[in-house]
Each structure stands twice: as structure tokens, then as C-alpha cells.
Amino acid sequence: MTADATPAVRRSARSIVWTRRRRAFARNWKEYRRNREGLIGLVMLAFFAFLALAGPWLVDPETTAVITAPGRPFEPPSSQFWLGTDEFGRPILALLIEGARVSLMVGLIATVFSIVIGTVVGIMAGHFGGWTDTVLMRVSDWLLVLPFLPLAIVLLVILQSSSWLQISPVTAIAIVVGITSWPATARLIRSQTLAVKSRPYLERARALGAGHWHQMSRHILPNVMPLVLANTTLTVAGAVLAETTLSFIGLGDPLRHSWGTTLDGAFGSGAISIGAWWYLIPPGVAIVLVVLAFTWVGHALETVLNPRLQGR
Amino acid sequence: MATQLGQVSSGVGSAPDETAGPTLPTPVKKRFTGGATTVIVRRVLGAIVSLFAVLVFNFFLFRVLPGDPARKLARNRHLSAEQVMELRRSMGLDQPLGQQFLTYLQGLAHGDLGQSFSKHMPVSEYIGDRIWPTVLLVGVSTILSIVFGIWIGIKGAWQRGSAFDRVSNATSLTLYSMPEFWLGIVLLMLLAGNQVGLGLFPTGGMHSVTPPEGVLANALDVAYHLFLPCLTLTLAYLAEFSLVMRSSLLDEMGQDYLTTARAKGLRDLKVRRRHAVPNALLPTTTLIFLHFGFIISGALTVEIVYSWPGLGTASLEALQFPDFNLLQGIFLLFAASTIIFNLVGDLLLGLFDPRVREA
């Protein structure tokens, strides 16, 4: 197939596949590198991922505890506290670093929920067609129509107040955001599945006696995977925003800091009337940067993986 | 919000076929290719089914999932078993589930959403009081954002790649990545705050503490209070409309009929005004109806920031109490209005665009 496959060495199918995958990756990476915004986004994401992972070593838990806070309330930025302090005297920078972990984690878990449900539903609807398709798409259309925030509020309140489900508020937010955001993914995956379904190699697989599971997992899934990947990064952006909004309304975990609960604290403590801009601005900037980074990476991946979009 | 972000990149061009059913050409289904009436009837029926699904969902969510409301009420009081039974009977909880659902539907048909625990008045009455500020705020800012968003989108697409296009595109994307309420907080601090801000506007509410005499003075007072929340929401919605308008005009600009129009000798400006823009306006204007849920979600949090006395602050109060009846009343209203707006958007799109009508 390729020039360097020397005839003397017999190569296993697996090694051929891996060579091909490595090449495809190198080609796509080369394409991706040409996208400036995509690269900036990637660097920004790496930075925030580092903050989230290294948080426990960067921040002493005592500095973000209310009782052992090192500063005085509402101190403006100084050489000791780079971003000032909050109403309890906790350094804002420490809160932000701790918040990165929760915000990103909720975003990622919610995305996993959303992508898994969306992909399964989309592939099933596209592959089986008929009644399955009609029912699944009606349900997802219905969820798509309902206004996100009122729906999420109602679901969260019920989840948190129900006596037979004991889950932490952070997990509850991730579940609710995942449940409310899968329909968009499902629609996308379904249309892609329909496009793949009529290709000759699937007909060949069917002729050779491949079952539904084999067709879906071995032939359709690998083909819709790139799209899933691009969609994932966009979904994380939405999930981070959703977590912020829900935490701001007061549905976040009061015991763990996220950027949303920090903003809630700032708003609730009257930082606006005090003029404590150092408390209000940084969490928002962090959110905007993360969401922008995920969006840029998502768009860049989309242009690489979807040739039709190139040059737009 | 999560879904909307995805749609900007991938779903914008295909907005018309969102609800157009199967996208594959299926020659077998002859019975659905009837006239426009069939399509309208199908859409209306679909909306009714959706509404009914919301009712069932709402009933299960609030009556079945959280467990027995009577026991919940009794938890913090010392009630005997007989008293709890009496409470259950008075709330209709001793009836079978099907009977309870029928009673619930009957109540809804009479506009009865139950009693608000925190406000001590019927939920429907309370919502009636709080709905108008929200309508005012959402209405004014939606109209403003449409006008400016469409203008920016047209200018950007027509001068694609120009400085204006690049700046407006980057601004739109940044605004899009921003939580609406944070934008509100920043504007509030800068323009209304006394410490670091200019102190130009009131920091919240809808009226001054002592409202001025006279209708005109009163209206001006409300407008003065409306300015900042309205500016926030306009900016938040603007990004959506300008991005969609830009991309749908770009789609239109590749079409042959524009080349024909230019070849006929029409001036550039005329081609844009009379040929390209009307066609590109179509998906954008119907999008307003289809994205009504997004519009509501934005308004909820911005109202909280500016303590605007609408349904957003009402839901926050209901949440903190927690007042389940009020909460489900507000949810029902939002869900029903979104479904109705979607139906209107679908029908309008079918009315104006023959390609959708055929689908």
C-alpha cells in the first residue's frame, strides 16, 4: 500500500494499521499547527490543566479555610496577595487555583455523560432507523426545545432534595448538565451515521454476516469518532459555563470552590458596592479564557477533521 | 448553553431542517408529501404532544420523585399519624396516581398552579405580577440585539476579512464565551458603582425609592433603571445574532443568482440590499423564535444581578425558600412558552421558505 513497506519483512496487520494511524496523526497535526487560534487554545488549556492538577501542591489548604485565612477582609492586590483577598481574608489567587480543579472536573464529567449518551443514541437512531429513530429523535428534540436554565434548576433542586439519592452537589451539577446537553450531540452523530451507513464497506460487512453490534462498534463508531472529538471540546466549553451559572444561582457545593461559587461569594458579599474589582474580575476572566480556549480548539479540530469546512 | 455553543459551529447552516424529520430521501413515505396544511397540522400536533410531555414530566418530577410531600411537611413538626393522614387526604395524596394526575390536569385547565408557600398567594397570581418586568426587559433587549446583530453580521460578511469583520468576530466570540451575569456584574461595577465606577446609573430595581409623579416621569424612571440590564442582555444576545447572520449571508453569497444579478449590471449595494440580505434574513429571524430558551436563560441570571423584579429573581426566591409550587409554575410557563415560540418559528419558516415547506 505504501512505498516503505519493504517486501522482505512480513508485517502483521496490526503494525500496518499503526503505521497508517501514525501517519494520519502526523498529517492532521501538521494541518492543525497552521491554525493559530487552535494552538493558542491548546497552550491555554495546558496551562489550566497544570493549575488544576498541581493545585494541591501550589495552595496550602489552610490559606483557603475561613478560620485560618492569612489576610484581612477585602485587601486590594499587593505584593503579598497578588489578586487581593475576599471577605474572609482568603487570597483570591488561591481560590482561583482551587476553583480550576472543580470547574474543569465538572465540565469534563458532564461532557463524558453528554457525549456517551449522545453518541449511543445518535448511532442507534441512525443505524436502526424506523421506530427506534422516530422515538429517540422525538425525545431528543423535546429536550432540545426546553429552556436550558429553568430545566437545569428544576432537575438540580429535585436531585438535591430527593431523599433516596445521596450525591454531592458537584456530581449532581455534572449529571444535570450532561442530561440536558446530549441531544445536540445525538443529532450530529445521527446525521453522520446516516452518511456512513450507505457506504459500500458497510454493505460488504453486512454481506459477510456482521451483526448490528459489530457494524456499530467496528465500522460506524470509528468513522464518527473524529466528529465526536471535535464536538467534545465544544461541549466542555458549554458545560463549564453551565456550572458557573448554576453555582452563581447558589446551587453549587458550598464546601468546595469553583469559579462559579467564587463569583457567587463575591456577589453575595457586596463586593460590587465596596468596589472590590479584584474579587469580581479574575474569576470571570478565567472562565472566559477557558471557554474561549475550548471553543478555539474545537473549531480548529473541526477544520482539520472536516475537509469541507477548510478555507472558511 | 451547552447545546447552543455546539450549534454555532455546526448547526447554523442547517437550522431549517432542525425539525424537518428524516433527512434521508425516503421515497416510500408518500403520505407525508401532502400540501402545506398537512405540514402545519403535523407541526401543531407535535407541539401539543411536546406540551403534554412537559406536563407529565412536571408531574412526575415534583409529585413522584422527591417522595411524599406530606411527610416532608411533617418532618419538622410533631404531628401524629392521624394528622399526617389528614394532611395527605387534604392534599389529595391518598388517591391513586392516575387520579392525582387527572386532578392536576383539571387544575391546570382552570389556570390553577397551586398555592405558593412563601408568598401566601396563588402561584398563578404571583407569576402574573412578576411576568411584565421580564417581558419588558427581554422584549426590548431582544429587539435591540436583533437590529444591531443583523447590521453587524451584514457588514462583516460583505467585507469579509476586513478589520471590521475581524474585530466584530473576535468580540462576538468573546461575548459568547462570557457568562451573561458576569458581564452584568462588570457593567454594574463600572457604570453604576460609586467606588471604582462612574455612578451614572441605579444599582438595581425597577423604580426609584420615591417614584416621581406623572406617567411620563414614571416611564422615564423605569427606562433609567432598565438601561443597564438591557445593555447587558443586548450585548449577550448580540453575539448570537451577528454570528448567525454573518454565516447565513456568507452561504448566500456563494449562490449563482448573485453572480447573475451582478452580471445584469446591478450595483453592488443593490445586489446586497435586494437580493442577498432578504434571503439571509430568513434563518436569522426564525432563529429568534427557535432560540427562545437561550433568551430566557440569559434573562434569568441578569435579572438576579440587577435585582430586576421579574421571574428570574422570583425563581431565585423560590429556590432559596424552597417553594416547589412556585418553582414548578415558573418552569411550566417557561417550557410552554418555549414550545409555542418554537412552533411559531417553524411555521414562519415554512411560510417564507418553500424548500422547508416541501420537507
Descriptive labels:
heterodimer, A: mainly alpha, MetI-like fold, 11 helices, 74% helix, B: 359 residues, mainly alpha, two-stranded antiparallel ribbon
What does this structure look like?
The complex is a heterodimer of chains A (about 300) and B (about 350). Chain A has about 300 residues and is mainly alpha-helical. In chain A, about 75% of the residues lie in helices and about 0% in strands. Chain A has a single domain, classed as MetI-like fold (Orthogonal Bundle), CATH 1.10.3720. Chain A has helices at about 15-35, 35-60, 90-130, 130-145, 150-160, 170-195, 200-205, 210-250, 260-270, 270-275, 275-305. In chain A, helix 2 (about 35-60) crosses helix 11 (about 275-305). The radius of gyration of chain A is 24 Å and the shape is globular. Chain B is mainly α. Chain B has a single domain (about 35-65, about 115-355), classed as MetI-like fold (Orthogonal Bundle), CATH 1.10.3720.10. Chain B has a two-stranded antiparallel sheet. In chain B, helix 12 packs across helix 13. Mean pLDDT of chain B is about 80; it is low at about 1-30. The interface between A and B is large, with 68 and 67 residues.
List the SSEs and their pairings.
The complex is a heterodimer of chains A (312) and B (359).
Chain A: H1 13-33, H2 36-58, H3 92-128, H4 130-145, H5 148-161, H6 169-197, H7 200-207, H8 212-251, H9 259-268, H10 271-274, H11 277-305
Helix pairs in contact in A: 1-11, 2-3, 2-11, 3-4, 3-6, 3-8, 3-9, 4-6, 5-6, 6-8, 8-9, 8-11, 9-11
Chain B: H1 2-10, H2 36-64, H3 69-74, H4 81-90, H5 97-109, E1 115-116, E2 121-122, H6 123-158, H7 163-176, H8 180-192, H9 215-253, H10 256-263, H11 268-290, H12 292-305, H13 311-320, H14 324-352, H15 354-358
Antiparallel strand pairs in B: 1-2
